[in-house]
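note to self: dont lose this again. the chain is below, predicted strucutre after it. 227 aa total, dont forget to put it in the shared folder this time
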Amino acid sequence: MSAAHDSLSVRDYGASHGSHDHDHFQILVGLDGVLELEVAGRGRRIAVGDGCVVPPGERHDFEALSGARCLVLDSHANAWARAGTFPPTLATQALASYLARACADRLPRAQQVGPSLLLESWLPSTQVSPRPRRAIDWDALARWALARSSSAPSLAELAARVHLSAAQLTARCRDERGQSTQQWLRELRLAQARAWREQGLGVAEVARRSGYRSPSALTAARRRTGI
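---
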């Protein structure tokens, strides 16, 4: 069965509304037209039958000047990190068309079993069990990230440090730390900021070292997280 928060829908795209990100995977399969997609600075083109997996935390923007229509799955299933390394199969394309009609007809089973079927169809039939995971030394990664001082490492830089893709690190962080990579990094830096304040550094200097644009921005971030 699919995760409790998985949701299937059919969406129409037109002019860009600006970039954004999500705390979940977003899977798109083209149904009609051509969707121009930019994910973390990389361009993609989704025509009919094409697909794309947008990992959590990666900023992306859509545009379809002549209009486009896609089946969209918002999913918290970490298996999409692996599935996203493959293009959709012919089975996925056929299933997407059916699920789009089922969504239009509001068939409840589409939401109940559609997400897991889409994932199953996406993976090649010859897909073998994954190799054992390389352990991530989170403490060492935290020390390296904090040593960057006011220059916060990007998701891609963090992933490269532990020899993973950005999507793989995102999934591992959710599995092993229970939060997104961005949340993990933000809490590290705020904890470091609190330690500097306790050592007597001024709030302006702490904000500069922590990469916040102003003392008020740092204060607001600490208030939101309680750190």
